[in-house]
Amino acid sequence: MKKISILVPMFNEQEVLPSLYDRLSSLMNANPDYEWEVVMVDDGSQDNTALLALQMRERDKRFHIVELSRNFGKETAMLAGIDTVSGDCMVIMDADLQHPPEVIPEMIKKWEEGYDDVYGKRISRGKEPWLRKKLTEFYYNLLQKSAHIPIIKNVGDFRLLDKSCVNALRQLRETHRYTKGLYCYIGFKKTSVDFEQGDREAGETKWNYFKLLGLAIEGITSYTTLPLRIATMMGSVISMGAMIYLVYVLFKTFLVGDPVAGFPTIIVCLLFLGGIILLTLGVLGEYIARIFDESKQRPAYFIREVDGKRQKDGRGREIE
Ligand code: UDP
Ligand code: MG
Question: Does domain 3-224+300-309 have CATH number 3.90.550.10?
Answer without folding.
Answer: yes
